[in-house]
Amino acid sequence: MSEAEAAGGEAASTEPMSPEEFRRWGYALVDWIARYRTEVEQYPVRSRVLPGEIRAALPPHPPEAPEPFDRILSDVDRVIMPGITHWQSPNFFAYFPCNNSEPSILGELLSAGLGVQGMLWSTSPACTELETHMLDWLVEMLDLPRTFLSTGEGGGVIQDTASSAALCALLAARERVTSGEGNRLGTHGNLVAYTSDQAHSSIEKAVRAAGTGSDQLRLVSTDAAFAMDPAALSRVIETDRAAGRIPFFVSATVGTTSSNAMDPLPEIGEVCRRNGVWLHVDAAMSGPAALCPEFRWIHRGLEFADSYCFNPHKWMAVNFDCDCFYVQRRADLISALSILPEYLRNAASETGAVIDYRDWQIPLGRRFRALKLWFVIRTYGVEGLRAMIRRHVSLAQELAARIEAHPLLELAADTPLNLVCFRHSHGDSATQAILDGINAEGRAFLTHTRLQDRLVIRVSVGQTHTERRHVDALWEGICRWATGPTANA
Ligand code: PLP
Predict the structure, then answer these.
(1) What is the DSSP code string of 325-394?
(2) What would the mean pLDDT of 387-402 be, rounded to a whole number?
(3) Which residues approach ligand 1 with their CB closer than 6 A?
(4) Which CATH architecture does the domain made up of 116-367 adopt?
(5) What pLDDT is attached to residue 295?
(6) What is the pLDDT of residues 149-196, one digit of tens each?
(7) Given the CA of residue 95, which atom of ligand 1 is nearest to it?
(8) Where are the domains of the chain?
């Protein structure tokens, strides 16, 4: 008998939410999300709250007593929504996109509902096997080198982000070049890594996190198109070798963050092969373009890569987080990351016939992320995903052509896919005025970079529901702000 019953009162429910209530609030929340997604384009894209404003609207202390769920949901509208930047708005052109879709959201919901922790095959065989299968499907969908298939010596795994993929690749490369000593003896002061001066900051972070140290990372120079210069890479590797250092890791980028530049993989691959250096290819944003045969040129030379990653959570309608990471030889990765404590030993793993993905990543635990990939790929079909990519690329190319034809604007880089980089021909302050003007209006959201030390506006066309009318509206704003503040008075 509970204390309440002993005291003659009614027994308090031990369930804060009964199955019936869960069903009711679940429907209500799905309704809320569906409405949000149809209305999202009406909101100012960027949150306008000031630092601390959201916390100030929250109670200073946690509730002692249970609260009704409708009150919590109404606080989502009252407290949370003002602090949301609407990444799913079709008017979101900032950074790189983080696009999602209805089937993906349902996949995420099912993953939470099943609550599986898939660290080992034996902790939920479907979690591992669906993931292996999806990663193999994606090799076919993107026409990646077949050496990445799990049926040979390679294989793919879902990482949270491209940053984690880069770190895992670097650790595998370190173990390969030191024959395991890196793990046992710690930092190797002589190891040197290479990437271009346009690579994403996650490569430097990986080098720091692995203990290689950023002084041991060389930023190789780039050409006029912001792509890594393979001759410069070769020279710097030779210089390091001559000085007794050990080149061990090169990260090339397919679609750099600032300008969407494509590093020349065949030439970089030759340099790596000649020098016995691990080649990682980071196609975080641009990889999904290879769903379309006409864009598969971006992966020319990928057969040289020891590892490769791209992010369905950027441009394949799969919600964050979902990075697909492949290796040519899974033994390299597993020998870098596998540690087997007694409490994880199990019969299935001992047979060697199953994959334990805990050995392919930094954390032990992992969610059932393959569900959202499965739901998206089946709901869209490869055809539907291709149509989205093609729409984004053609909208970006049209915008680039308009910019090129405008008397006051100029392109700051080529537009190989869906990122348009431009500036005002009168210089940085005129460029800044366009950026500030558009962002202050709030109907669209743009971000910037610097190329050749000049301010550049980036227009990244990649939201799931971005259509011509959204880019047209953005173009109207760009033209208005390009002609100066008087035009906007
Ligand atoms: N690599 C490139 C080329 C990127 O553009 C980005 C992010 O925009 C990243 C890596 C890092 O992505 P993630 O957030 O998945 O670590």
Answers:
(1) EEES-HHHHHHHH----GGG--HHHHHT-S--GGGGSSSS----THHHHHHHHHHHHHHHHHHHHHHHHH
(2) 98
(3) 96, 161-163, 200, 202, 253, 255-257, 282, 284-285, 311, 323
(4) 3-Layer(aba) Sandwich (3.40)
(5) 98
(6) 999 999 999 999 999 999 999 999 999 999 888 887 876 789 999 999
(7) 8
(8) 18-46+85-100+381-489, 116-367
